[in-house]
Amino acid sequence: MDVVSFGTWIIGILIFIAFYWYFSIPKNLPPGSAGIPIVGYLPFLSIEAHLTFDKLRKKFGDVYHLYMGTQLVLVLNDYQSINQALVKQGDVFAGRSPSSEFEEVNGEHSGLIMTDGEYWKQHRRFILRNLRDYGVGKLALEPLILNEIQHFIKELSKHVGKGNFEIKDNLSYSLTNNIHILVNGRRYDYDHPAIKKMVESFKEFERIGQVFPFETFFPLLKPIIRILDSKRAKALWKTKKVFLDNIEDIVNETKKRFVNDENENYVQAYLSERNKRLQTNSNEQIFTELGLLHNTRDLIGAGTDTSATTLAWAALYMAKFQKIQKKVQDEIDKVIGQREPSYNDRNNTPYTEATICELHRAVSLAPIAVPHRVMQDTTLYEYNIPKDTMVLPNIWAVHNDAKLWGDPENFRPERFIGPNGDCVKPEYLIPFSIGKRACAGEPLARMELYLYFVSLMQNFTFLPPNGEEITFDSQPGITRQLKTKFICIKAR
């Protein structure tokens, strides 16, 4: 075959692909763009995809479609559409899109976060019930958290007056302990190998994890992509394996202390539930040994790093906005004084609560909620949405919508103070997402954030790092990690 003929063949194939691509696009989709044949819109996404999605609102509106590779994606950029999809049509939009970043070492998806259907429904119901039984969001859990906070404050005091330091690690050690107490009934010293390995795994995953890895959108090319990007692929695999091995050690240690029908912690409650089911069904497929391992991993992973990072952002914002920090401290001094805080105090500390709300809004830690999947052909407003469409709720866009907030670029807790001086939380403040896939650990996270933030403000004043300007830019990753990692503290 001569060069001309070969070139003609190539051109013909490309034309065929382009035509096939164009005519295979479903009809009556929301406005949007198919991008380039085969790769879709992926080449045009910035590292901070939520910003790209927000800019595209000006062109396509709040609800639009894109193609990422061959995957049809629905992007939701306003509260009304997110609420319509995730709450009012919650059953249809409750699926979970697969992601290569979160698949198991064996290539499958498991655990509470990345599954859907009956497996997910039963495990979520079980987890929510047991978290309530353990007092999550209630005063019964408060003494355990306050005890851990005392260890944390003591550790943090070692850095007073000693210049720049990174607060995130100590926060991670401390908050991991809160989850451990619920999961396996144990607390670990901050230098314990188990907790050290876990926090290092969090950090490494945030460093190398990607929101939209290419192999997610080109599953048939996954082996080739991982060869081309072998360094990252190997590092990601190793990180997930180290973390899962660590979880397995914790689960096995807890099993040794298990007595039939004991429900003192999550692992024991799971084993008890599994034993009950095995008595009536020897082929139990939902509550399995592997399910215990993966759900324990999800509880610890999701329940630690998000709260630790949010509190690290809080310290940074207080270091930057000294007047706001002083106002928070004055309110806490007046209402709580030097006694231990209680979660009930939040009703009497409206400015402190408003500051936490403004932190949630300004930080938008998970700027894009974990991708949803449409479970069956449906409609959203007047548009057709096919089954298996990936759905991306842009939380950052909602939290930075000038129509809702007026001046979203400013850090202003007063926006949450109502006419009577109380803290008013609008429905469109959605840091934990909404609907059936909203964060199961939200009650625990809210309690932790309040008690830790108040305790920090009672004991310390945060200051800008020496020789470094504070910036609220974030590192690219699964969540918004701080670029300005260091601060200074002084004792109060």
TrEMBL record:
Tree of life domain: Eukaryota
Name under which the protein is recorded: Cytochrome P450 3200B2
GO cellular component terms listed in the entry, alphabetical order: cytoplasm
Family classification: Belongs to the cytochrome P450 family.
Cofactor: heme
UniProt-listed GO biological process terms: organic acid metabolic process; xenobiotic metabolic process
An example Gene Ontology molecular-function term: oxidoreductase activity, acting on paired donors, with incorporation or reduction of molecular oxygen, reduced flavin or flavoprotein as one donor, and incorporation of one atom of oxygen
Binding residue positions for heme: C439
Keywords: Heme, Iron, Membrane, Metal-binding, Monooxygenase, Oxidoreductase, Transmembrane, Transmembrane helix
Residue spans crossing the bilayer: 6-23
Keyword Translocase: no
SUPFAM superfamilies per UniProt: Cytochrome P450
The species this protein was found in: Chamberlinius hualienensis
InterPro entries: Cyt_P450, Cyt_P450_CS, Cyt_P450_E_grp-I, Cyt_P450_sf, Cytochrome_P450_fam2
